Amino acid sequence: MSEPKYKKIARDLLAKIQNGTYPEGSLIPKEMALIDQFGVSRPTVRQAIQQLVDQGYLEKKRKRGTMVKRTKIAQEFTHVIQSYNQEMSAKGLTTQTKVLLFQQEPATAEVQAALGLAETAPVYKLLRLRFANNQPVVLVTSYLPVAPLATLAQIDFTQRSLYAELASRKLAITNVRRKLEVLAADETTAALLNVPEQAPLFYFHTQGHTADGTTLEYSIAKYRGDLNYFVFDIDQNQSLQSVWRN
């Protein structure tokens, strides 16, 4: 069965968006130009354009035409435990990580409470700026207890996933608890993420647990509001089971 013509047109337009032929903020050709280019009817062209509008690549502007939108990244870690690199690579995005800080330090009261540590216990503090297609997307500060993680300071986290490293030590994160807030970017965070000061950020607090219930990770992630949206899958059967258990 041959592919519908509108899908071929949509695929061609999307390829030109992604390779920069139609850059962000530019107008794609008018309907009549596309009709002539592809030798199809107006409804076929409109169906192709609507598909890309529905997918978030295009936006119709009254009296102007159809414009290429800034595409937001669907962040699905809200219901899947996987590394940033895994999730971005699955979407066809090129990733990069800059380690801004990696050191041992005394745990603050907040970190002690999150990790269940004694007051004198030291922690690793790992501060990473994560990129997708050369755009800074998220600033992540992770805290981990030093005691069970000898030699962690030797790992190059510009190349190595934190979750992969923990799994290699038989300390895989198998359960997480996340809290979401929306906050305004302060001066330092705004500069690192290349957004205006006071721009909205998605602010996630994550506690990562191993299979035996040990809290091994406490992370604070600040996601750009203009580049990200979050996907939540809710299973009615699981919800009902949770209600009955509680």
Explain the overall architecture.
Helix 1 crosses helix 3 and helix 2 packs across helix 3. The protein is elongated. The strands form 3 sheets. The protein has a 6-stranded antiparallel beta sheet. Strands 1-2 form a two-stranded antiparallel sheet. By secondary structure, the chain is an alpha+beta fold. It has 2 domains: 5-68, Arc Repressor Mutant, subunit A (Orthogonal Bundle); 73-230, Chorismate lyase-like (Chorismate lyase, 3-Layer(aba) Sandwich), CATH 3.40.1410.10. It has helices at residues 5-18, 31-38, 42-54, 84-90, 109-115, 162-168, 187-193, 236-245, and strands at residues 58-61, 65-68, 73-75, 95-106, 122-132, 135-145, 175-184, 200-209, 215-224, 228-230. The chain is built from 8 helices and 10 strands. One of its GO terms (molecular function) is DNA-binding transcription factor activity. This is Transcriptional regulator. Residues 3-71 form the HTH gntR-type domain. Keywords: DNA-binding, Transcription, Transcription regulation.
Task: Round the mean pLDDT to the nearest integer and report it.
Answer: 84
What is the top-level CATH class of the largest domain?
Answer: Alpha Beta
Question: Which CATH architecture of the largest domain would you pick?
Answer: 3-Layer(aba) Sandwich
Order of helices and strands: HHHEEEHEHEEHEHEEEH
Which word captures the global form? elongated
What is the SS-derived class? alpha+beta
Low-confidence stretches: 77-81, 239-246
Distance between the termini: 51 Å
Domain HTH gntR-type: 3-71
Keywords: DNA-binding, Transcription, Transcription regulation
InterPro entries: Bact_HTH_transcr_reg, Chorismate_lyase_/UTRA_dom_sf, Tscrpt_reg_HTH_GntR, UTRA, WH-like_DNA-bd_sf, WH_DNA-bd_sf
Protein name: Transcriptional regulator
